[in-house]
From TrEMBL:
Pfam families: gag-asp_proteas, RVT_1. The keyword Hydrolase applies. GO terms for biological process: proteolysis. One of its GO terms (molecular function) is aspartic-type endopeptidase activity. This is Reverse transcriptase domain-containing protein. Keywords: Hydrolase. Residues 92-334 form the Reverse transcriptase domain.
Length: 431
């Protein structure tokens, strides 16, 4: 019987759990440090390469940001700086690490200390880093401080506080025929979604969004701090979001999650803020900026941050990515060459077991539909599967159905990229 990878790693490391590891540079962040973006448990984490660190570590601040993505266990491992100072260890996790085309399950120590996340020798021995790319990024950072100047000029945007959008308050529209209902106190806030009118403005389709990416060379991804709650509610709307708790009735003062119209209100607000700025994509609380040149990109970033500062919006700097050659946005990997599926999602499709009932089949088709743009003739490939969803059709998994799943998985594994739309290119229309 094959041993689970995470269990195997636990066994292999059990003897070394009591070792004292050296971490030389933790806490002394250097402007000239070599840094790299690593996908850890589907989170984009900036890590500082430290050949002086025998293990890889994550700071407490970063862990708190992505806490739900990590399952940590107690550890007796000890960390010491070169001065002999002990660094408190919160715990240890086995994480899924993805870097470019490489993937591995690796150990990660979470420490109770501020500072950069460190990529130590244990990970360096397992990952083949693109040093040419890393050196070029460091070189460009050293040659120009334009980005740092922009960030410093707009540092107010990155304050660790809840922002408040100035000059507007959200209004929730409710059907006049809706009858209020009284609910007993619940442990979590509860919103009456089905009685709230949806915003008339629909969120842009992904095709419309990605058309803006044409010609982009580098990408900046901005993450808002407590997104919706940066918008205050008007007085009339507060009565619609009253919640019952063990301490009595409370009303939200700010736009809450769970209300059907919240995404539309927030989307419209941000679109108004960045209106007229080219090369900016807004999808609720995820903002992507690009440019055909570095100068154009920096100018756009400067204008966006300046507007955010004026209107009172706050960002989570530790979750933002600046001037990267590749980013993951809305579940897609994006670079100057095009748009690609994320490896972890492709792997999930490939390893998914064959559905055994209609519910499982619908879930599987939903997973495939997310990447339908990459799969030619998908509707034809899935025809035998859609037959099983027809009314009054008895569930019967036939050989032809199984072949359909196999062909789809093969097509997904090819991972054909989608090019971003370029308006200046010649367009051929086939009839």
């Amino acid at each position: 019987m094959e041993q689970d990878e995470s269990e195997r790693m636990k066994d292999e490391s059990s003897e070394s759990e009591n070792e004292v590891y050296s971490v030389f540079h933790f806490g002394n962040k250097s402007n000239e440090a070599y840094k790299v973006q690593i996908n850890v448990n589907e989170c984009e984490i900036a890590m500082e390469i430290d050949t002086g660190a025998s293990v890889s570590i994550m700071s407490e601040d970063t862990y708190k940001e992505y806490k739900s993505k990590f399952r940590i266990e107690p550890t007796s491992a000890k960390l010491r700086t070169y001065m002999g100072e002990q660094i408190p260890v919160i715990g240890r996790a086995i994480v899924n690490v993805n870097y470019k085309k490489e993937s591995a399950k690796l150990p990660l120590l979470i420490v109770k200390r501020k500072g950069p996340n460190l990529l130590g020798r244990d990970w360096l021995n397992k990952l083949q880093l693109d040093w040419k790319d890393i050196f070029s990024v460091v070189g460009s950072d050293n040659q120009s401080s334009d980005l740092n100047v922009i960030l410093e000029a707009n540092k107010e945007v990155f304050k660790d506080e809840l922002g408040t959008v100035k000059g507007m308050k959200a209004k929730i529209y409710v059907d006049e025929s809706a009858v209020p209902k009284y609910f007993k106190a619940r442990p979590l806030p509860y919103a009456l979604k089905d009685k709230v009118e949806m915003e008339l403005e629909r969120l842009e389709k992904e095709e419309d969004l990605y058309a803006t990416l044409g010609g982009g060379q580098e990408y900046t991804k901005l993450d808002l701090n407590q997104a919706y709650q940066q918008i205050e509610l008007d007085e009339d709307s507060k009565r619609y979001v009253t919640i019952n708790t063990h301490k009595g009735l409370f009303r939200y003062n700010r736009l809450p999650y769970g209300v059907a119209s919240s995404p539309g209100i927030f989307q419209r607000t941000l679109e108004n803020v960045v209106q007229g700025i080219a090369n900016v994509l807004v999808r609720v609380d995820d903002i992507l900026i690009t440019g055909k040149t570095r100068e154009e990109h920096l100018n756009t970033l400067s204008e966006v941050l300046s507007r955010f500062k004026r209107i009172g919006i706050r960002l989570k700097k530790q979750k933002c990515v600046f001037m990267a050659e590749e980013v993951v946005y809305l579940g897609f990997k994006i670079n100057k060459h095009g748009i690609y599926p994320v490896e972890s999602k492709v792997e999930a499709i490939d390893k998914a077991p064959s559905p055994t009932n209609v519910t499982e089949l619908k879930a599987y088709l939903g997973m495939l539909n997310y990447y339908n743009r990459f799969l030619a003739n998908l509707s034809h490939l899935l025809k035998p599967l859609h037959v099983l969803l027809q009314k009054d059709t008895k569930w019967s998994w036939k050989k032809k159905t199984g072949k359909s799943v196999h062909r789809v998985k093969t097509a997904v594994e090819i991972r054909i990229s989608t090019c971003t739309f370029r308006s200046e290119k010649e367009i051929n229309i086939s009839m």
